[in-house]
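User: Okay, second chain of the day. Same drill as before: sequence in, structure tokens out.
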Amino acid sequence: MKKLFLLCLILLPVKLLAQEDLSQGIWKEIVQEEIKTNQAQAKFFDPSFSGNFVTDLNYDRNYQSDNSNHRYNDALLKGIFASKLQINQNFSVKSLLRLEELSKYNSNFAASAFGGNAISSSGNNRFFQNEALRAEEITANYNNKNITILAGKFTPNFGTNWQWGRGIWSNNLSYNYKPTQKVGAGLSYKLGSRKKTGQYNFGFATFTNDRTALNNSLINQTAPYNRVNNAGDAAGLGQSYNGSLDVLFDFAEGEKLSYHFSYINLGVNSNASTVTPSKVADQKGYAAAMNYRYPISDNFLLDGLLEYVRIKNLSGNSDVGEQYSSASLVGEIYRNWNITAATTNLAHQQLNYNGFDQNLSEISLGYKFDKTNFFDQLLLQVGYKSFRTNYKTSIETNSGIGALLRYSKAF
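Assistant: Same drill. Structure tokens below.
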């Protein structure tokens, strides 16, 4: 199965959800940005402010489960507020505030959750509980033609499937390897042309875990790290780093192709780690993704994504590793409708233990309303999900239905 997936990864071109600019961060996870490059006379101080507000209202009903405690109803609110203060043509300050439900992304998600938006050990319903609002990115940025330098708090460029935008649940398992809460500096260099030879974005960043007040939630309790971030108490700058290459092509009108390759090393402070000293090792991650958009006709477009991620020495423990393989296909019909099919497989291995395998799959239907003065995008998505966990000694299956209402407005 692994060899087949890798073969598909080589043969099937797919476009990645990469940033249009060179930022290491995810300021543009959903946000679309227009960059002014043609100024007759650049001024040292020529400020402008722009932003984007995106919010998701989710309803999730897990109606079938082999474990009766895992049948539940859940409603939650997610949101992103992204802003950019452009000081002049070269300097800018970006920030991103994120609202999310803490229990969705706790460190035991893959071992005990069931593919939904909440963890409920007693089968109780949950409505807008444990919501957290935190500063996910605050960066000072310098851009000069093909080079971008940033410093501050940001999300390293590792993996793509954890981003929003493809169905309702397709990013839930992949969120485990989203590297958040990092403070440091990064450099990106852009080379080539999308319409000719392809655009090549090279990126490098070094960072450490954010242990400042910015790590706290503005409401409720402190947001936890994802498993990929919880490598003991991370070592200092220079010992944790990320390198990436994004390749982008624009072919005929509407046809786009992208590749994403990334490596991440999370240094571990062995003095603070709870792992047995002989087992302590830096956590390493490898990611490869492709995304391809192809217009079949004026009224029908296909958007396919493949991604493979391998995590070694999970949480700084050389006995533990994980592999993720994700695939999704979105059919955009008459510009307003979409049909999304997505699946993610997780294999968790631990020396001398059984480990476990998980699969989260969904099929959903969505409608995007035309832009008005009140919103830039209003999307209604409804779907079905299936979540299966193989503990090697037992298997648990879950089924659910859900709905998503996404609102987006730029200013």
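The first helix runs from residue 2 to 11.

User: Thanks, on to the next one.
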